[in-house]
Amino acid sequence: MWERMTQDVNVDDDTARRFLEEMLRIDIFEEETKERFGDGEIPGFVHLSGGHEGSHVGMGAAMRDEDWLAVGGARLIGQYIAKGVPLPEIMAELYGRVDGSNRGHGGQMHVADVDRKLYGHAATIGSGQNPAVGLALAEKVKGTDNVAVTTIGDGGTSRGSFHTALVFAAYWDLPVVFVIENNQWAISTPAESLSPDSLSDYGDPHNMATESVDGSDVEEVYRAVSDAIERARNGEGPSVIESRVVRLVPHFEGDKETYRDEAEYERLKEEKDPIENYRERLLENDVLTEGEIEDMVANIQDEVSEAVEFARESPEPEPEAAYEHVYRTPLYGQGE
Amino acid sequence: MSQQVDVQAEQTEQTIRESLNQALYEELERDDSVILYGEDVAEYGGLYKISEGLYEEFGDDRVFDTPLAETTLGGSAVGAALAGARPIVEIMYADFLPIAGDHLINYAAKMYFNYGDETSVPMVVRSMYGTGDGHGLHHGQSPEAWFMNVPGLKIVMPSTPKDYKGLLKSAIRDDDPVLFLENKMRYGESGPVPEEEYTIPLCETDIKRRGDDATVVAIGGMVYEALEAAERLSDRGVECEVVDPRTVTPLDTDPILESVEKTNILVTAQEAPTFGGFGSEVAAQVIDDAFFYLDAPVKRVGAPFTPIPFAESLEEAYVPTAEDIETAVIDAIET
Fold first, then answer.
1. Do A105 and B114 make contact, defined as CB atoms within 8 angstroms?
2. Which residues does residue A243 pair with via DSSP β-bridges, in sequence order?
3. CA geometry: angle A75, A77, A79, nearest 5 deg
4. Could you give the CA distance from residue B304 to residue B15 in angstroms, rounded to a whole number?
5. What is d(CA B283, CA A274) in angstroms, rounded to the nearest whole number?
6. Interface check A322 vs B, CB under 8 A
7. pLDDT tens for each residue of chain A, 336 residues long
8. Rounded Cα gap, residues B71 and B93, in angstroms
9. Which residue of B has its CA nearest to A172?
10. C-alpha–C-alpha distance, residues B315 and A242, integer Å
11. Residue B249: its H or E element
């Protein structure tokens, strides 16, 4: 570690501590998720966020509670946490239990929470930007200054639906912030084969403000997204931000990652881990001590254990729940 | 007939085009959260002039044009509905609905289910279908079968001016996503429409003509063909009951079953290809729940399993008509 240059901390100490704490919360929650999935307690499949934590936390911290987050890409759990969904509700949803955020109807890829302004329907990658445009449209019609932030991975930017969303956001000049989390891997397909130098360049033809930042640096993401949100709130229209992150986990748990270069992977883990880097930075700048970080970790571990207990104790949905909530208005054949 | 409509009330003669325009006008006026957008719907008034005059009346905050991208028409409606608006979007031709399909099938239809609380997406997607104008492969297909297999979507396919108006108003007020399909070949059909304000509930099958000898379940524009066939058959002493479900999904099946239990003959009629279509589902429902009432095999009238052809001679051969329904009823009765 000694060979690294010491970086300044450019936010106040409280904010810096919150950044680290929130990134650790994602990391510890996901480590536990991985364990519980490995033990067969969590069904389905899970995609973890390792390497994206700084991007998620920086983005979440830049938003007001009233701003929408329309999630996309595959690294979602960190985004749910960054938008403030309580850990027990997320964990119970991963377990498919009645006390989950979606009562077990959605699972890991579909956590949604309208009270926390989380639009969470993301699994047809590259689509979520279109509802985000609609969220911003409705906020504009209602006359609020709320903003819609929407995320997408590098893979999703190849879908036409991403580009039509850009067209509409520009046409209506809506308060939308497009955040592209470029971790360079669409499962096994590298983003370097895509033609733009930066994926934020996709905003250029629409004359949008664009910026490409080091997404492993929580403060950089926080600054860039804050700037974009401020522009959007002030009526200056949409922005596109590329958050260059690294994927320090398999695409989903169980992916053998045979397509990755071993040495390069190790280098990224050593150099680009957003949590480890920020931890060092806060220690070097005397924002936190080792002991304080240990306490922080211990507290989060307790929170996560409680979330697991909550999920385990929550009942599985009764089979008839599969037929509930299909239509909002009672209908023939719907049991009303 | 709908309970909401007082049959004694004053009625005026109106076209479907006029009744739809009025429905949109009334709902935009009633509720500020209603917005109407799509390609060429504002100043141009829509390709078929259904939204004519609304932009002038309500301004570009409420009625506005969009770039050409059905993907975002569908997706933005989902988001706007979630955030408190009641969007009505026009997809110029139903043939273009698959472009918005991701947002209708994967998003709109599943939102209420996925959120698992009271969150819903009150949105209406209006779109036009209808064959017989030489518009060929991509400007007239009937799309109901593409979407009726999707739980969470409601599909409304009215026939008369009165139904069009009452059902569109209900669709706009409904909290579920509604696909509202308009037969572009029938916009000029006229009929009595109540002068007073009214709505017609979704998911209520209507009996358009009473008869004891055969049940014809027809959808959308085919209701007119069924009524014409019924008149001809009446001259031959066969009285058809013409059943108009009006809402394709979720289907109100009881009136269909009751009719078949009385007539013992079932013929279905749709404009889409017969295979895997709406009529097949109606037939299956009747076979499930009223099989022993049937005196003859079910006859399904629809298009052949081929794309809509362009040449006049081919198109004429393709489109199902009153004669086809008449033949099907006679075939069934004579079985």
1. yes
2. A181, A213
3. 80
4. 30
5. 61
6. no
7. 444 567 899 999 999 999 999 999 999 999 999 999 999 999 998 999 999 999 999 999 999 999 999 998 889 999 999 999 999 999 999 999 999 999 999 999 999 999 999 998 778 989 999 999 999 999 999 999 999 999 999 999 999 999 999 999 999 999 999 999 999 888 888 888 888 999 999 999 999 999 999 999 999 999 999 999 999 999 999 999 999 999 999 989 888 889 999 999 999 999 999 999 999 999 999 999 999 999 999 999 999 999 999 999 999 999 888 888 899 876 654 433
8. 14
9. B66
10. 52
11. strand B247-249
ipTM tops 0.95? no
CA dist list (Å): A105 to A98, B6, B74, B113, B120: 9, 43, 23, 7, 15
Q: Which residues of A touch B203 (CB under 8 A)?
A: 331-332
For A336, the 3-state DSSP assignment is coil
Mutate to test the interface with B, among A141, A327, A334, A336 (most CBs of B within 10 A): A327
CA pair distance A304, A88, nearest whole angstrom: 8
Residues of chain B in contact with residue A148, where contact means CB-CB under 8 angstroms, are: 79
CA–CA–CA angle A291, A294, A298 (5° rounding):
140
Tokens of B282: 């109606």
Closest by CA position to B279, among listed B151, B163, B142: B142
CA-based nearest distance A50→chain B, Å:
26
What is the pTM assigned to this prediction? 0.95
Specify the residue for token string 């009136």: B255
- The one-letter amino acid code at B79 reads G
Q: Which residue of B has its CA nearest to A97?
A: B116
CB atoms within 10 A of CB A270: 10
Beta-carbon separation of A131 and B203 below 8 A: no
Contact flag B253-A70 (C-beta cutoff 8 Å)? no
- Yes or no: say if B84 and A140 are a contact pair by the CB < 8 Å rule: no
DSSP B186: G
CATH code of B9-199, in short, is 3.40.50.970
Pair of tokens at residue B68:
């050409």
Kindly identify which residue of chain A lies nearest to residue B177, measuring between CA atoms: A327
Classify the C-alpha dihedral A130-A135-A138-A139 as positive or negative: negative
| A331 interfacial to chain B (CB closer than 8 Å) | yes
The ranges assigned to domains in chain B are: 9-199, 206-334
Determine if the peptide bond prior to B250 is cis (ω within 30°): yes
B295 in the Ramachandran plot: left (φ > 0), alpha (ψ -120 to 50) or beta?
Answer: alpha
Q: Is A161 helix (H, G, I), strand (E, B) or coil?
A: helix
How many angstroms separate the CA of residue B84 from the nearest CA in chain A?
7
Of B174, B158, B238, nearest in space to B206 by CA: B158
CATH number, span B206-334: 3.40.50.920
| Domain architecture of chain A: domains with CATH | 13-323 (3.40.50.970)
User: In the numeric block, which tokens belong to residue B309?
Assistant: 């052809």
Three-state DSSP class for A187? coil
What residues contact A249, with CB distance under 8 A and at least 6 apart? A48, A49, A50, A51
Residues near B165 by beta carbon (within 8 Å), at least 6 away in sequence: B14, B19, B20, B22, B23, B193, B198
Characterize the bridge pairing of strands B63-65 and B124-129.
unpaired
Which residue in the block uniquely carries the two structure tokens 């320090």?
A: A248
Contact A142 B84 (CB under 8 A): yes
Tell me how far apart the alpha carbons of residues B305 and A31 are, in angstroms, rounded to a whole number: 54
d(CA B147, CA B143): 7
B154 shares contact with chain A (CB less than 8 Å):
yes
